[in-house]
Amino acid sequence: MKRRFFLQGISVLTLSVVAGCKQAAALTVEVLKGSVPMQMANKFREQTDQGPVSFVPQPQLKDLFGLLKKWQSQPSSQADLVMIGDFWLHSAIQQELIQPLDPKLWPSWSKLPSRWQNIVRRNAKGEVDPKGQIWAAPYRSGSTVIIYRVDKFKGLGWTPKDWSDLWRPELRHRISLPDQAREVIGLTLKKLGHSYNTADLSKVKNLESELLKLHQNVKLYDSNSYLKPLILGDTWLAVGWSTDISPEVQYQNGLAAVVPQSGTALWSDLWVKPVGVQSSPTATLADNWIDFCWLPQVATQLSLLTATASPMIWGMNPQELPPSLRENPLLFPDPAILDNSDFLEPLSATSVKQYQQLWEKIRRGT
To answer: So which residues are the signal peptide here (predicted)?
Structure first.
C-alpha cells in the first residue's frame, strides 16, 4: 500500500545524517523523510547522555520495509528502530522481520488510547489478537479524507460531507479515487453501513452495483499524484490522505478537506524493532525515544509541525490542546467519526482474492 507524504508548506525540517555518525551512534532510527521534526530530534538529544542519536531518512515507507527484509540476511548494518506503516505490520511479523516489544518499559503506554494499543497487539501470524504480544509502538496517525475545490462547489450549492456525496450525478467524471481496492471498496462498504474490514463481500447487498455507479463518476484512479489534477481543475473532488493536505496546501490552492461523517479508514506509522537487535529487561535508548514521543508536550508539537496527529492527543483533555490543533477537523475529528472509523486489518487469503476479483471487475466497468 502506498501513501503519499506531500508536505509542501509544512514547517518540518528534513533530518540529515552526519557522515560516519551511523556506526558510532548510540541509537540509530530509520524514519520516513519529513516525519520527525528537527525540533523533536534535538530536544531528545539534549535529554540523553548515552551517546549520539542518528535519524536516517528514507524517501518512502516501502523503502523502510525493504530495509527490514535486507537486514534479515545482512543484520550487521541494521538500525535499532524502524518506522513502518501499520499496513505492513502483518507482513513484518509473518516474515519474522521484527520482534515483540515490552510496553512495561514505556511509562506512557497506559495513557495511549486503546484503539492504538489494539492495532499493534498481534499473534505470531500477524493477526489482530487481544491476547497477542505488542509488536510495535504507534507514533503518528492520519485518515482517508475527501478533498475538493471550493470554487467548483460554490456553483453546486453544497459541499461534500460524507461518502454518499461521491455518487451525486453532478460529479460524473469529476472525481479521482485511490488506485487501491481496500480503500475504494472500503469507502463503499462504509456508505452501506459496513466495516472496511468486511471479510465476506458476497453478503453485502448492492455492493457491486454501488461500485459500478461510483465508477461512472471517476475520471482517474491515482494514489500518488491525485492533487495535481485537482489543483488544475481537471477534477473537482479527490479521495486521498490527510497527510497530503495541510492547511497551507488548502489555502494556497483553493482546496478544502473533510473527514467523512460516517467514518473512514485510519492509518498509523509505527516504531518496530528489527529481529537481531538485542533486547533488554530494562529500558534502552530506543525505549526512551518511543516514550519521549508520547509525552504530552512532544505529542502536541508533533501534531502541530506535521500534517499528522500523535495518537496520544486522543487521551488528553481537548482544552489542554492549542486551538489550532483541537479546531483542525483533519487532525482532531469529531470523536463520533473516529469511533466509526476503521484501521485496515489483515484479511484472509480468501477475502483478499474476493476483494481483488471485485476490484478488477469494477475497473473494467462491467
So the answer is: 1-24
